[in-house]
Design goal:
It comes from Alkalihalophilus sp. As8PL. The chain has 158 residues and is an alpha+beta fold. It has 5 helices and 7 strands. A 4-stranded antiparallel sheet has the order 1-2-3-4.
């Protein structure tokens, strides 16, 4: 049986994931804010507001502080001549093998946050679905994209 993939994501990925989780948590903040506004217009129990606030801070603790290091520790990948090996997950660790013969195209993608940190995601598309290797440094992402594209082209020729 083959061992787990060996290549880790850059350490900076944890910081980027923390920022992404923080920005996403701002949407969750709408719940206690909305309830707080409704308190001004209706006679609602105040303890529910405090419960929403406590749940919100617990949510921030879990998604911003706790999960990014665990996610980073479990995310590994390896690009071999005949396949791409991905391992990821926090509670449930998934392992995916993508045969090079199934790769249709490979993209790099940057959102505003990744662009700010000079990072990119590599997306590998097959006929069935797409797979993502997240938050790689820009140089590594471009090199990986080109390498996978070259290996996929060689696999098609065979």
């Amino acid at each position: 049986m083959r061992g787990a993939p060996s290549t880790l994501l850059p350490v900076k990925a944890r910081s980027v994931w923390r920022l992404q989780a923080f920005f996403e948590s701002l949407l969750v903040a709408l719940l206690p804010i909305t309830y707080g506004v409704l308190l001004n217009f209706y006679d609602l129990p105040v303890w529910i507001l405090f419960t929403f606030i406590a749940i919100y801070f617990l949510y921030i603790f879990i998604t911003v502080i706790l999960l990014p290091p665990l996610r980073w520790k479990r995310w590994k990948y390896e690009v071999l001549e005949s396949e791409i090996d991905l391992q990821f997950g926090v509670m449930i660790v998934r392992r995916q093998l993508i045969p090079m013969t199934r790769v249709q195209h490979v993209d790099t993608e940057q959102g505003p946050l990744l662009r700010r940190y000079k990072m990119a995601d590599v997306t590998i598309t097959t006929a069935a679905t797409s797979h993502r290797i997240p938050t790689l440094s820009l140089e590594v992402a471009e090199e990986l994209r080109d390498r996978i594209a070259a290996l996929a082209a060689v696999a098609e020729d065979e």
